């Protein structure tokens, strides 16, 4: 072998040894790696086995907890197939429904549902599958094993494994009772959770029933209130009862509601009121004067049981069936009406369409209504009794008024002669002794007249006919006059009679002078009558509210016999004096103080007395809200002498059937230069007026052939084309005053017996006169002419009068007692607007005069002009009659 080959073999062998060494080394490394790997793998296997054991233990523990939870939960949990077959139910089902779990497995869930609810629930179940509602809530009734139904709230959860990861479903469980699946969802089983809600349903039903009962109670309370209100209206009683029956019938929806009233002896009864529903025939005309002998059971049942009640009249006694069946009544209820403790009748409710079962609430309502109606009958009887008593009292009062009116006329007629002739004779006599005798006659006559006036005043006050006439009054002058009237009597008894006014007392107040003087006259006269020594003092106080108004107080104090404080109120009663004040000793009939109190109360004031026996008396009169009058342009009514007034060239017609009355008036008119004629009846007056012209007419109201009102009406009709003749009512009856004032036929009124002063004042309004003053001045007064009515204005007088009476007269009534300049100016401007509309200068002139007084701030003149407004209307009205 060559060396070259040997070298080749050596190198080859060396390479193989090297390769084997490398392989062994690599194998050793790999073996070590495998060994380490096996060690690690063994360690991992041990850890994994531990983890598996731990996880298995936890799963077993959770399964036990879940099982315990399922078994302890208070809700029944079912798992069913889609066809409703139960595959699982928790043990609580035995407690809730009475079934063991084994009894329900493989049974249909629907078999548990109450038959009345099963079809409806199965429809819901099928609909949920069809519409993909994976979650929904329902309330159904389950049958328990012992057949006692219970209410359950049921959650239907259609389910598959993907539902566990469904976020929508997890949110729905928290926020809603219903959820619809997504398009790619499908169901393979159903989880049903059922919770017992029987108690909550019962509570809800109770609350619902209570709510309904409360609502019904409110409705019934409203009905009762309406009935009570209707019974208290001023409508006719029959209308009220019929309205109430209608309301009850419509509320209860019955066929008929009616009331029967018994006769006086209670043997018969009659249908007096009835309401019938639509299509129900009325029976009221056929059910009159029904004898209880035909229906003896009716009154017996209704009295003993407190009502007659039947849902089926076939259950009632035979006698009742026989009268109810012909009326087609199927159900009935009736309650008695007890009035003033006795059986008065009954109220009934019929149902003719069906057998009606009244609820407890309805029965209570009807019972209450029967009581209300019974009370209404009692009130009606009481009202009728009061009306009868009132009518009797009014008849008695009317008889008294007629008696007083007749007595007034009969007494005033001779008094007219006594005083009239005495006054006329006093003017003609020259001998002092004769004048004194006549003065005594006049004094005695005036005393009788005062008594008569007191009685008539009292009658007018009681009848509400007394009116107050306010004008500016000087209280100091008034008290001076009172003193002058009593000073001689006081001096004769040795009594000091004084009066005083507090500082800053207003000079003029707007009051009724005559009535204030009458009150002061009574109080001072009373003080002097019961005082034998000491004094009688009058004090007048004025407590201002502001510069326009204040409170007036009169205090009349005496040192007389006084009176018992316990009896102080009695002296203000009619015809009453204190015990011991004998009429013969002290005179009088006990009317003065009674009239004084009534007059002061009419003015809105009060009168009271403070006194003790033997220590005198103090009478206190307070009158609130008295207005202060402006002294500007004040005219004293006594600023002229009667004897200085003459009415030369004037003529008068006297219409009176009593010759002495006519003669007195003739004598007084003659003294003041008035020529007069006399007519003794209405026809005679009409004849004289047709034949002669007169400037003034004195017309008696009571004439033998016709009333003075008719005579005046005929005179106005006769003289339509002639100048207006002033007609003065001339009467002895003070009760005719209101009729005369309200009449359009008379311009003024005089009351018999006529005082010369009153006669002259009236004549000065309507006749031209001459006044010769004490300085020898001759003052001639021209009477303002009547309104001139142009021919083209006559057709519009009725429209003008309508505006004056309906629009302006109410405004005047608000203005006349309160001088508010801007309001009076607005009133005057409306008058001017009316005058311009019809070109009626008479109204325009009157309104301009008002505005002139406002601009010059002549408040007294303004008040006088404002008070003339009714006279303006009357003159236009009289011209309307003449035209």
Description:
This protein is α+β, with helices and mostly antiparallel strands and 883 residues long. Helix 10 (360-428) crosses helix 16 and helix 12 runs parallel beside helix 13. The strands form five sheets. Strands 13, 14, 15, 16, 17, 18 and 19 form a seven-stranded mixed beta sheet that branches. A six-stranded antiparallel beta sheet has the order 2-1-6-4-3-5, with helices on both faces.
Notable features of this structure?
883 residues, alpha+beta, seven-stranded mixed beta sheet, six-stranded antiparallel beta sheet, 25 helices, 27 strands, 51% helix
Count of helical regions: 25
| Radius of gyration from CA coordinates | 56 Å
What does the largest sheet look like? Answer: 7 strands, mixed
How far do the termini sit from each other?
190 Å
Structural class: alpha+beta
Mean pLDDT: 79
Residue stretches low in confidence (pLDDT < 50, at least 5 long) are: 169-176, 578-589, 632-640, 774-780
Helix content range of the residues, please?
Answer: 40-55%
By DSSP, the count of extended strands is 27
Q: Which geometry do the CA atoms define? A: elongated
Task: Tell me the fraction of residues in β-strands, as a range.
Answer: 15-25%
How would you sum up this structure in a few lines?
This protein is 51% helix and 19% strand. It is α+β, with helices and mostly antiparallel strands. Residues 169-176, 578-589, 632-640 and 774-780 have low confidence and may be disordered.
Give the SSE map.
Blueprint: H1 3-72, E1 76-80, E2 86-89, H2 92-97, H3 101-104, H4 115-131, E3 133-142, E4 150-159, H5 167-175, E5 179-180, E6 189-196, H6 198-231, H7 237-252, E7 256-262, E8 268-276, E9 290-291, H8 296-304, E10 308-310, H9 318-324, E11 331-339, E12 342-351, H10 360-428, H11 432-462, E13 471-473, H12 475-493, E14 495-501, E15 509-511, H13 513-529, E16 534-544, E17 549-558, H14 583-586, H15 592-602, E18 606-611, E19 617-628, E20 645-646, E21 650-655, H16 659-671, E22 674-679, H17 682-691, E23 696-700, H18 708-718, E24 727-731, H19 737-742, E25 748-751, H20 756-766, E26 769-772, E27 778-781, H21 797-815, H22 821-838, H23 841-855, H24 859-867, H25 869-882
Parallel strand pairs: 14-16, 21-22, 21-23, 23-24, 24-25
Antiparallel strand pairs: 1-2, 1-6, 3-4, 3-5, 4-6, 7-8, 7-12, 8-9, 10-11, 11-12, 13-15, 15-19, 16-17, 17-19, 18-19, 20-26, 26-27
């Amino acid at each position: 072998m060559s060396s070259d080959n040997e070298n080749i073999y050596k190198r080859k062998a060396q390479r193989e040894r090297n390769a084997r060494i490398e392989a062994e080394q690599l194998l050793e490394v790999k073996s070590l790696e495998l060994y380490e790997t096996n060690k690690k793998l063994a360690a991992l296997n041990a850890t994994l086995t531990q983890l598996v054991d731990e996880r298995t233990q936890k799963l077993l523990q959770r399964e036990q907890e879940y099982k315990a939870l399922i078994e302890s939960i208070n809700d029944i949990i079912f798992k069913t197939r889609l066809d409703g077959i139960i595959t699982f139910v928790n043990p609580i089902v035995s407690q809730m429904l009475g079934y063991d779990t084994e009894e329900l497995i493989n049974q249909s869930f629907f078999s548990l549902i109450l038959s009345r609810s099963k079809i409806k629930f199965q429809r819901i179940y099928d609909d949920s599958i069809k519409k993909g509602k994976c979650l929904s809530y329902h309330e159904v009734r389950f049958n328990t094993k012992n057949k006692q139904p219970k209410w359950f709230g049921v959650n239907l959860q259609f389910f598959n494994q993907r539902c566990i990861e469904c976020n929508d479903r997890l949110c729905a469980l928290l926020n809603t009772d219903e959820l619809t699946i997504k398009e790619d969802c499908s169901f393979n089983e159903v989880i049903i959770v059922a919770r017992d809600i029987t108690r909550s349903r019962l509570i809800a039903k109770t609350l619902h029933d209570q709510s309904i009962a409360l609502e019904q109670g409110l409705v019934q309370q409203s009905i009762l209130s309406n009935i009570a209100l209707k019974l208290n209206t001023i409508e006719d009683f029959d209308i009220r009862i019929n309205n109430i029956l209608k309301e009850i019938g419509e509320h209860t929806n019955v066929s008929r509601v009616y009331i029967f009233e018994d006769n006086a002896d209670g043997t018969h009864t009659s249908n007096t009121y009835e309401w019938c529903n639509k299509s129900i025939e009325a029976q009221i005309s056929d059910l009159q004067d029904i004898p209880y002998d035909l229906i003896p059971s009716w009154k017996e049942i209704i009295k003993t049981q407190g009502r007659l009640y039947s849902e089926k009249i076939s259950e009632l006694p035979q006698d009742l069936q026989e009268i109810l069946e012909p009326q087609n009544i199927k159900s009935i209820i009736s309650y008695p009406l007890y009035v003033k403790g006795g059986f008065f009748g009954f109220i009934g409710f019929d149902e003719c369409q069906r057998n009606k079962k009244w609820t407890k609430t309805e029965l209570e309502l009807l019972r209450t209504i029967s009581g209300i109606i019974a009370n209404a009958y009692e009130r009606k009887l009481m009202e009728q009794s009061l009306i009868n008593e009132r009518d009797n009292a009014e008849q008695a009062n009317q008889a008294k008024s007629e008696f007083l009116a007749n007595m007034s006329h009969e007494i005033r007629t001779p008094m007219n002669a006594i005083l009239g002739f005495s006054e006329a004779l006093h003017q003609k006599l020259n001998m002092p002794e004769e004048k004194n005798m006549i003065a005594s006659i006049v004094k005695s006559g005036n005393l009788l007249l005062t008594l008569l006036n007191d009685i008539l005043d009292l009658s007018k006050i009681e009848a509400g006919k007394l009116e107050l006439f306010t004008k500016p009054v000087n209280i100091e002058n008034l008290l001076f006059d009172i003193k002058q009237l009593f000073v001689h009597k006081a001096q004769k008894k040795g009594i000091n009679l004084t009066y005083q006014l507090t500082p800053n007392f207003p000079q003029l107040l707007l009051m009724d002078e005559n009535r204030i003087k009458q009150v002061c006259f009574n109080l001072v006269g009373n003080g002097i009558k019961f005082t034998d020594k000491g004094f009688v003092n009058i004090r007048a106080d004025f407590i201002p509210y502001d510069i326009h108004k204040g409170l007036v107080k009169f205090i009349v104090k005496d040192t007389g016999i006084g009176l018992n404080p316990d009896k102080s109120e009695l002296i203000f009663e009619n015809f009453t004096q204190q015990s011991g004040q004998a009429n013969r000793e002290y005179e009088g009939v006990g009317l003065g103080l009674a009239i004084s109190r009534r007059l002061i109360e009419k003015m809105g004031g009060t009168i009271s007395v403070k006194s003790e026996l033997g220590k005198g008396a103090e009478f206190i009169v307070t009158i609130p809200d008295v207005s202060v009058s402006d002294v500007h342009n004040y005219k004293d009514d006594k600023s002229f002498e009667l004897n200085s007034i003459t009415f030369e060239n004037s003529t008068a017609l006297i219409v009176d059937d009593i010759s002495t009355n006519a003669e007195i008036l003739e004598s007084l008119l003659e003294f003041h230069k008035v020529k007069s004629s006399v007519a003794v009846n209405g026809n005679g007056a009409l004849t004289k007026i047709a034949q002669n012209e007169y400037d003034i007419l004195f017309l008696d109201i009571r004439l033998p052939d016709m009333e003075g009102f008719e005579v005046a009406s005929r005179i106005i009709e006769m003289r339509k084309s002639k100048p207006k003749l002033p007609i003065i009512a001339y009467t002895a009856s003070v009760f005719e005053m209101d009729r005369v004032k309200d009449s359009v036929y008379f311009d003024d009124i005089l009351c018999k017996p006529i005082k010369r002063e009153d006669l002259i004042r009236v004549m000065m309004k309507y006749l031209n006169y001459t006044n010769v003053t004490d300085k020898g001045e001759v003052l001639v007064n021209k009477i303002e002419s009547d309104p001139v009515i142009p021919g083209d204005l006559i057709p519009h007088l009725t429209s003008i009068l309508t505006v004056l009476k309906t629009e302006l007269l109410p405004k005047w009534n608000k203005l006349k007692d309160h001088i508010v300049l801007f309001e009076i100016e607005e009133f005057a401007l409306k008058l001017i607007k009316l005058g311009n509309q019809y070109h009626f200068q008479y109204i325009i002139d009157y309104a301009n005069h008002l505005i002139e007084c406002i601009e010059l701030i002549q408040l007294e003149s303004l008040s006088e002009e404002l008070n003339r407004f009714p006279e303006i209307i009357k003159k236009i009205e009289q011209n309307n009659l003449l035209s």
